[in-house]
Structures are given as structure tokens and as C-alpha cells.
Amino acid sequence: MKIVGLVGWRGIVGSVLLQRMQEENDLLNITPVFFSTSQFGQYGPVINNISYDILKNAYDINSLKNMDIIITCQGSEYTNQVYPKLRQKNWKGYWIDASSALRMENDSIIILDPVNYDMIISSIKKGIKTFVGGNCTVSLMLMALGGLFKQKLIKWITVSTYQAASGAGARHIIELLNQMGALYSTVQKDLLNNLTAILDIEKKVTNMSRSSNFPTDYFSVPLAGSVIPWIDKKINTGQSREEWKAHAEAQKILGYNNFTIESLCIRIGAIRCHSQTFFIKLTQELSLRNIEDIIKQHNQWVNVVPNNISDTLLKLTPAAVTNTLNIPIGRLRLLNIGKKYLSAFTVGDQLLWGAAEPLRRMLNLLINY
Ligand code: NAP
Predict the structure, then answer these.
(1) Residue from 64, 70, 74 to probe ligand 1 pocket by mutation (most atoms less than 8 Å from CB)
(2) Residues of 181-195 as b/e, b for ≥16 C-beta within 10 angstroms?
(3) Active site residue 73
(4) pLDDT of residue 48
């Protein structure tokens, strides 16, 4: 059995990865070795009544060198620090990574097998050893619109994202909940006695969100009761790095480039699941029925939600999609501005198809190869 090193399994992506590996019995097909950057020397996890060995130091290159495969959900800083050292030591194993550090390298493949299975298999045959999960919104967009991309029906897309707090990591979820709690606590009595005027309630809540006591260590500004229209660093095009990824990574995953994607990425106070609005220019006129069929047939997880109020509210929200592999896409409509223009809205669990699921499926492809 392959010896597989797991790094970053305590974080939010790593926890979901482990949960999925348990559900699919993946751990029975490998010899897992657990690493940590902060807790090495402590007991390993207990999974299905099996106690795993003491945690190894995730910076110890000699321990990592013994792995056939390493899966890391630790983040870019870790990858930048450890990966070059391992390769310099002539390590020939497979590196599977959730972080963006190596995504755009020439000798890495961005993995999303329902979309680029053939590319992944041919790269394994060519001897590629580095496989990286895509940006979460990019992977979720390609899962939703894969059929239209496959038939080269997309000329351009403008995307607005609505990204959950968990997209920024475990500590950010906790901060969002603390912010929600602080807002609620400040008006709890007023809400119970039902006597306070609504503008007085709003004023107290706004004052709390602007006070120095409000917890903003990680987001740096309020997210609860607000939105943050910037994710990741600024690059010199005026885009955020998250926005730049939409076009760059989609091209790399699909392996062709005669389309354009423009994106504006926004953090909202959802806990888990990213949502996205698309305005799409198609390369040719198609009926809505035809478009829906092409979308549905692409993969088994995407499903078209009828464009009506009850289906939209029931099936097309983070509350409905969280912790499922479903990729609903709805609000599909040909626009008044021209016959080749389409709107759509999709929701996907960014911790599953947007992060952990492509990694565990890549592990299985390598094990069964
Ligand atoms: P995270 O939750 O912040 O976890 C990263 C590491 O932080 C953990 O492995 C853990 O390392 C440490 N940590 C510190 N305090 C923690 C706490 N209270 N609970 C859990 N872990 C804690 O980061 P992440 O969101 O999983 O992201 C990991 C990588 O995946 C990043 O490169 C990210 O860009 C990428 N990614 C994330 C998402 C997403 O939706 N979150 C989606 C796609 C890709 P030690 O155990 O070593 O201390």
C-alpha cells in the first residue's frame, strides 16, 4: 500500500478531506501518516476506532521523504517553504496540494477530474508529479458550466461571487460567529421586550459593528451585517488575485483560451458554500431548453433548478447546498440585451468540489493507476 502523508488535516479543508476519506473508505487503501506544523509529538487522530501514530513534524524533510504521496491542505506558505526542499533532496513522490502556490507552474496540473480527466491521465503518463486543486470559485464555476465550456459555447463571462467566511479558513468562521453574537447581544433585551423602535435597534447594532470591541482580527472589518468587496491581494491590473484566478486557472484547467472571464469577488456572511452570478455571452444562439440539456449532461453532480421562486428558494442557496456534492444552477434566462446572452446563478460547497473532493479523487487515481 502507498504511504500517504497528510498535512493540514486539522484545518477546515483538511477536516472535510478526512471526513470524505472516511465516508469513502479511502483510508483502508493507503497507509496514512499524519503530520502537523504545530502539534507534532502529540497523539494522532482516532478514526473509526483506529488510533494513528504520534504526529510527525510537517517541516521534517527526512520524514516527508519517506512518503509515496503527500497531500497538503496547510496553505501556500507551507508549500513554498517545504516543497522546493523536498524536490531538491530528489524526492520523486506525488504532491497533491489545496493551496495556490504551485498552480500556475509549468510542471503542475490543476485537478478537477469531471472537467479535465484526460489531461490528468495523460500527465500522469508523462511523469508529472505535482497536482494542485483549483481555486474554489473556479472549480465550482467549471462544474456548473462544464457542458457549455466543453462544447466551446462560451465567448465571455462576467462573474460576481458571494463567498462564504469558511473560504478564508477555520479562524474566520469563528470570527464571523463572534461578530454575529456581538451584534445580537447588544440588542438582545430590546428584541425580547419588543418595545424598542426599529431605528434605535439598528443604531445600536451599527454602533457595535463600528466599535473597537467588535472582533475583527482576521477579516479586519465587519462581515456580519456587511459585505467585503475584496478577497486576497491587489495585483497591478486593479483586480484582486482571486479575481485574476478566474480567467487564468480556467484556461489552464480547460487547456484552451478562446474565451474571457472577468470577475468581481465578494465575501459575504455565509458560513459555507460559495455562490456566483454569471452573465454569459454565448458563441451562438441556442434555445434555453438546449442550454439546460447541455449543462445537465456534463456531469452527475450538476442539476438545473427551474427558474421559479419556490425551486430557487428551496434548492439554490448555501443553506440548501452545504455539505452536499450537488452543484445546482438556476436563474437561467436568455437576456433582453440579445439572443446570445444568458444569466445564471450557481451555489456549490467550496470545501467539497471547491477544495477537498478533487484532492481525494486525485489520490484514488494515483493509487489505482
Ligand atoms: P485553515 O482552516 O486556516 O487551516 C490551515 C491550518 O491552520 C491548519 O492545518 C492548522 O495547522 C492551522 N490552524 C490554526 N488554528 C486552527 C483552528 N482553530 N482550527 C483548525 N486549524 C487551525 O485553512 P483552510 O481554509 O483549510 O485552507 C488550507 C489551504 O486550502 C489554503 O491554501 C487555502 O487557500 C486552500 N483552499 C481553501 C479553501 C476554503 O474554502 N477554505 C478552498 C480551496 C482552497 P496545524 O494543525 O499545523 O496547526
Answers:
(1) 74
(2) ebbeebbeebeeeee
(3) no
(4) 86
Name, in order, each residue with C-beta under 8 angstroms of 52's C-beta and a sequence gap of 6 or more: 32, 34, 44, 45, 46
pLDDT on residue 369: 86
Averaged confidence pLDDT in the chain: 97
Give residue 173 CA to ligand 1 midpoint distance, Å.
11
State which of 13, 163, 176 you would mutate to test the pocket of ligand 1, scoring each by most atoms of that ligand within 8 A of its C-beta. Answer: 13
Cβ neighbour number for residue 177 with a 10 Å cutoff = 15
Q: Check residue 179 and give its pLDDT.
A: 98
Q: Which atom of ligand 1 is nearest to the CA of 355?
A: 43
Q: Mind listing the pLDDT tens digit for each residue in 280-296?
A: 999 999 999 999 999 99
Residue of the CA atom closest to atom 7 of ligand 1? 11
Q: Which amino acid is at 311?
A: D
- Give the torsion through C-alpha atoms of 255, 362, 148, 329, to 10 deg: -140
Q: Which three cell numbers stand for residue 102?
A: 504551485
Helix axes 136-150, 288-297, angle to 10 degrees: 120
pLDDT digits (tens, 9 = 90+) for 226-251: 999 999 999 999 999 999 999 999 99
- Would you list the DSSP string of 175-212? HHHHHHHHHHHHHHHHHHH--S-HHHHHHHHHHHHHST
Q: Is 265 left (phi over 0), alpha (psi -120 to 50) or beta?
A: beta
Asked about 247 being catalytic, the answer comes back as no
- Taking the CA atoms of 83, 85, 86 and 90 in sequence, report the sign of the dihedral they define: positive
The active-site residue out of 136, 247, 265, 298 is: 136
Return d(Cα 320, Cα 121) in angstroms, integer: 34
Q: Which three cell numbers stand for residue 193?
A: 421586550
Q: What residue ranges of the chain have pLDDT lower than 50? A: none
